Amino acid sequence: MRQLRDSVWQRRGVSWLWDAEARAQVCQPSEILSLRQCLGMVSQWPDNLPSNEGNALVVAGLDGVLDLQLPTDAENWLGSCVKDAILSFQAFYEGQAALLFWLPSGASRLTTNSATDAVSWRCAPPNAHESLDFGRVLWGAAHEYPQEILLHARAGPVGLFHLRIT
User: Fold this and answer.
1) N or C: the chain end with fewer CB closer than 10 Å?
2) pLDDT digits over 29-88, tens only?
3) In sequence order, what E strands does 24-76 have?
4) Distance CA 46, CA 151 (A)
5) What is the 3-state composition of the chain as percent helix, strand, coil, each rounded to the nearest 5?
6) Cβ count near 52 (within 10 Å)
7) What pLDDT sits at residue 144?
8) CA–CA gap between residue 37 and residue 86 (Å, rounded)
9) Percentage of the chain modeled with pLDDT above 70
10) Using CA atoms, how far apart are residues 63 and 101, in angstroms rounded to an integer?
């Protein structure tokens, strides 16, 4: 998987962050919206975004909603509701804003197959033996497009970034 050392993820595209330092570079905790609030904005996005000087919207709760559903239901919901919200966000802001999903447990839950760059979400108990095909559902077969976000040269990834989902 390609690596990103640039800060473009703070202003454009869609990211899934699990590192508190990375999240703090974009917003204060009080600026984080719930997933419910985000999904409620789909047909009426605000002109001014709350984070990163109006360039970003940070959303928490995706992990909790995925965990509360059966894996097949979660995958279907991810591919319909969440993907529709992402596409709507991208269209409204014409690619000139960042949508960031705050996933504190993402480092251990989002896994990447190094041979194929396929990204999966490890389900929570009692379905911990299953995973969601996160990448296929959200960005299709374009596995070369997501990038690992790096803050420091010797540290591991702090999230995943995708410039534009189609």
Assistant:
1) C
2) 999 999 999 999 998 999 999 999 999 999 999 999 999 999 999 999 999 999 999 999
3) 33-34, 56-60
4) 29
5) 35, 20, 45
6) 19
7) 57
8) 14
9) 98
10) 9
Q: How many helices (H) and strands (E) does the chain have?
A: 7, 10
- The first and second tokens of residue 88, run together, are 């709507």
Q: Give Dmax (Cα) for the chain.
A: 42
User: Which residues make Cβ contacts (< 8 Å) with residue 35, sequence separation at least 6?
Assistant: 59, 60, 61, 62, 64, 65
Side-chain-side CA neighbours of residue 81 (13 Å): 15
4 phi and psi angles, rounded to 5 deg: -120, 120
Pairing of strands 98-102, 13-17: parallel
pLDDT at 142: 58
pLDDT in tens, 73-110: 999 999 999 999 999 999 999 999 999 999 999 999 99
Candidates 97, 101, 64, 114; CA nearest to 164 is 97
Which of 82, 93, 9, 100 minimizes the C-alpha distance to 47? 93
At 41 the three-state DSSP class reads coil
Rg (the chain; Cα; Å) = 15
pLDDT band of residue 141 (cuts 50, 70, 90) is low
